[in-house]
Amino acid sequence: MSIIYRNSMNAIAKFVPEKLQPLWKHPAGPQTIFFWAPAFKWGLVIAGLGDLQRPAEKVSVSQSGALGITGLIWTRYSLAIIPKNWNLFSVNLFVAFTAIYQITRAMRHQYQQGALEGTKATPSEAAH
């Protein structure tokens, strides 16, 4: 750890209220990457929630699938590491849930489109 970083954290620690000291000193607290990586990853969850307004035909199943799989993998990993990182667990669980919901929307839309095309094709085939 660099001396500049350590000195910065020691200076900030003086202003952290006594009630928040356990969080500040936690092995996965704000002084570590274990805190900040999941904190910024919440941006993926916010983007996923914003995509719920996107029309289902515009949802990428492969992209949502990749997000869902990585969300599930990292959800499991967050419980296997020491210290347990509940922030990492929750953000990845939400990433997985939003991705799975998007996949469900896209697949339902594709199924409905296929059913509509099937009903349109049936009367014309009967006419021939």
TrEMBL record:
> What's a Pfam family this protein contains?
MPC
Specify the protein's topology with respect to the membrane: Multi-pass membrane protein
The principal location of this protein is: mitochondrion
Record localization: Mitochondrion inner membrane
One of the GO biological process terms: pyruvate import into mitochondria
Sorted alphabetically, the keyword list is: Membrane, Mitochondrion, Mitochondrion inner membrane, Pyruvate, Transmembrane, Transmembrane helix, Transport
Could you say which protein family the record assigns here?
Belongs to the mitochondrial pyruvate carrier (MPC) (TC 2.A.105) family.
Q: Record's PANTHER family?
A: UPF0041 BRAIN PROTEIN 44-RELATED (PTHR14154)
State its role.
Mediates the uptake of pyruvate into mitochondria.
Protein name, UniProt field:
Mitochondrial pyruvate carrier
Organism source for this protein?
Lasius niger (Black garden ant)
Give the lineage: Eukaryota, Metazoa, Ecdysozoa, Arthropoda, Hexapoda
